[in-house]
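Database export, one record per block. Field names are fixed; values are copied verbatim from the stored entry.
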Amino acid sequence: MTQFNTPDLVGDSPAWLSFIWIAFLVSISLMLLGIFFIPVDWWVKGYLYMGTLFLTASTLTLSKSLRDKHEYERLVNRVKSARTEQVLSKFES
């Protein structure tokens, strides 16, 4: 019964979070730098910058939405399990 009273405290390690941020910053910086130095007209560069901006924003939004959905499903499953445990404990008494 105590398993339902203690929340999950498992999180990402600081090393993993650092790796994620460094990888993100390096990749976005290299992409923007590559667009800056590509030998094309300004409007093509603008299109590529806009595409990079929207792709980055939509990727971040998608990952946040998927995480929120996963956390919601975990919460629903924990509530269902707690209710089942409560019904079973009343039935056994």
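Remark 1: The chain has one domain: 10-92.
Remark 2: Residues 10-92 form one domain.
End of record.
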